[in-house]
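Quick question about two entries, pasted in order.
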Amino acid sequence: MDPATILGIVVAFSLMGYSIAQAGDLGAFLNLPAILIVIGGTVGACLIYYPLGKVVGIFGVVKKAFVMPNHSYAERVRVLGEYAAKSRRQGLLALAEEVKALDDPFFRRCMEMTLDGIDPAEIAKVMGREIAATTERHRIGAEVFSTMGTFAPAMGMIGTLIGLVNMLHTLNNPANIGPAMAVALLSTLYGALLSNLVFFPLSGKLRYRSWRESILREITLEGVVGVAKGDHPTVLEQKLTAFITPNLEQDDPKTTMGRQSGFKVKDEARGEADQPAKPKRPRIRL
């Protein structure tokens, strides 16, 4: 699980709830009509704005905001370097058993195409299209949440107008003024909360996750093509390490080791000792 996402939601709502409870009655801020107006209106607007499949598909994408990626950039570079060295010594088919054990479906498919003898340029073309398709799917998922973040405050304002109309309609009955005013005020509150504490933050986290995943896949594809071409392991590692910027290293669970010792690949084909890689790190802006 991603502690940042969970912690952010818990801290935000817990502190706000605590502040409300200290100042008054927490139950006074729960209003079912206002909730239905905001959530129902937001979901309904999204169903009008997007096809049904796109809206339903966000449930499969949103889990990425709560789950930390378990693949490390440094580890992927190391594995690809080892594959390059082994393939130069024993041939590509010597990697067959290791490829079967890969837990990353994209990495496994790329290597399987390599073992099948498919031209490296064709591998880059086919799997590059898969990267683009996956990125677009994730972009749409993030966009749906961003759109919901735009609609939610508008639905809150609509709820406010509904509450005010009901209040004005019942001015001759003071007992009904309070509930109508509660709907008017709480609708705006719910819309603002959902927009700024749920929808927009989730959209941003999904975009970030998608960006990191696309970089990992680009590293993987570049490395697999290098293995298929028979690139020198050290050269391949230098080339792949250029993808890994400080921004990417910050929450990469295994790059600390890589920063301390460098990425090492033993090139037994040349019989030379390993040397830590010292790549230049171009900045990639998010």
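Here is the second entry:
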Amino acid sequence: MPAVFANSYASRSQHISSQKIAQLRFKVCFNLLAKQNYIYKVLNRAVGKAMHRYEMISDKDRIAVGLSGGKDSLSLMWILKERQSRIPINYDLFVIYIDLGFEGGFTEQLKTYCAQNGFKLIVEHTDYGIIAHSAENRENPCFLCSRLRRKRLFEIADELGCNKLALGHNKDDIIETLFLNMCYAGEISTMVPSQSFFHGKLTVIRPLAFTDENIISRFASSKGFPSFVNPCPSAKISKRQEMKSLLSQLYSSNKKIKGNIFRAMSNVKTDYLLK
């Protein structure tokens, strides 16, 4: 092949190759954006449904947001801020983090992340985690720690003049709590999406109550939320984690089970329960 034709062929091949690479990059970016948009829509729809059904937010609400640093509370903080800019309801957000006192915590990193994203994080330093894991309370550290943390959140919300406290519990958490209460407390009860305390002075809301945990995980990943390591020694060996594993096995046998359990909690036939 003459050199002039060879050079022309090589140039053309290189041009086609560049075109294919550009098309491939465009396709990858388009698919990624479409996937992110889909996950956002699923999350936003579930949050909107929960908020509407339980009338969670009203005009001029002052909402304290309990931040733990996990994917659920970070997603909650993001969606409440995002909705604040586009729905015809005015409300204020106050983000609170309870430092439990464990070594190797991530308070400063969380504070920096919040500041970079337009949030002023209110940090409360405590020794609740240490107390809950003391020798006098080895049997159920999670229960005591949760109770102390929630009590302090209530107090700070009151100090800030907040009438709502938003927590990041999701659909999976609500189902797990149902089974934990049945197995370890001998009662049929769970967390509810909206619950008033102190004669209506403060209402706890859970906007993620209708959202599946896997959707939140995918959303957090698509947004590049930071992943903080929980320093709690019981983080991976709690009763809740055991229940999560058991339910995961149950769900894997039939994809309808999870939805049926969740719907059953609002379809209780008391005539067919023991008196």
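Reply: The chain has one domain: 46-264. The two ends are 94 Å apart (CA to CA). Hope that helps.
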